[in-house]
Amino acid sequence: MSGPMTDRERFYATMHYQPRDRVPLCDFGYWRETIRVWHQQGLPEHVTHTNADLYFGMDYGLDRVMAATGVEVGLAPQFEEIVLEDRGDQELVQQWDGVQVLRYKWGLSIPMTLGYRLVDRDSWLKYYKPRLDPSNPARYPTDWEERVRVWRDPNRAGVITLPCGRYCGSLYGWLRNWMGVEKLSLVLYDDPAWFEEMVTTVADCIIGVMERVLATGGHFDACALWEDMCYNGGPLISPKHFKQYLVPHYRRLADLLHRHGIDVIWVDCDGKIDSLIPLWLEAGVNAMMPVEIGTWGADPIRYRKEYGRDLLMLGGFDKHILARGKKEIEQEVYRLAPLVEEGGFIPFCDHRVPPDVPLENYIFYVETARRVWGHDLYLRPGGYSDLK
Prior knowledge:
This protein has helices at 7-15, 32-40, 52-55, 62-66, 121-128, 144-151, 173-179, 181-190, 192-214, 239-259, 277-283, 300-307, 319-322, 326-342, 359-372, and strands spanning 26-27, 60-61, 82-87, 90-94, 100-104, 112-115, 223-226, 230-231, 234-235, 265-268, 287-289, 312-317, 345-349. By secondary structure, it is an alpha/beta fold.
């Protein structure tokens, strides 16, 4: 290598098993509570969950990557967020997706769901289906022309760019959020035609928006999907139903992306994903993120042995190790190093860094990763060195 690669060049080379100066060094993000705890442990107050990746000398954070495009494939318009009841240190809120949750005012990571607006066909037709119109101009940023100009530049050196803001869609996870897993599971058996209608409507919306974005001639680096449709024992929907109802629409989306040169398609799904990986691969979704280790013992090294280079991976560093000690952190960094060197794998904490991780441990992890995975080559400066 004659010099440092750009973030985009490094990402592309890694995901295509090509020579590169080093692996991308990035993060998936941090709980807001983590940053608050770290402030008490010496982290400067100006560091927040939105800029911590820069402070720790990462190449980029995935939150910034997924917010870069500004195109919305989900509900449009979103529901108005309304505080329905003040309960002291908690509040009952109607969220942007119409779901009622009880949350702590200081930001508990996962609020408690108390009620749903999507409860039957009538509420689907009244509140949700109209918000899944791909032609709604509210889906597109007001500076559309300027963004298109940037997307069309194949030599732009900025951070990797996805075709849509946040995620490029969800076929099951959104419905589960809007309706609840129990109700959605019953619909799948009691009214499969309605289940199929909802999935198809969501898929049509996603693909309709993506067709307009991709028709600009923009150069995009990957597509990110979100599902969160597994728990510690396996998927929330059977592989049989997954293949019947979801795979055809994943295939439609993957075919569209492939026609426009996008061949890195990752899905963000927590939990035990083992029985769904072959079906995602069959459908053209070829990357898993964040490869959550969990109590079920997932392992990116095992996945590489099982699926070879067909499966790309992001994440895969057990977040629980970060809370233990420096010896365990160093051991895991070195254990994953051969897979990092092979390519097709970008390592980082297997979910947002939780607040039980001491700041001192995280800094040690960052330093070790930069040295072992990054080979101390072309590293971004970080402000954390004052805390060492």
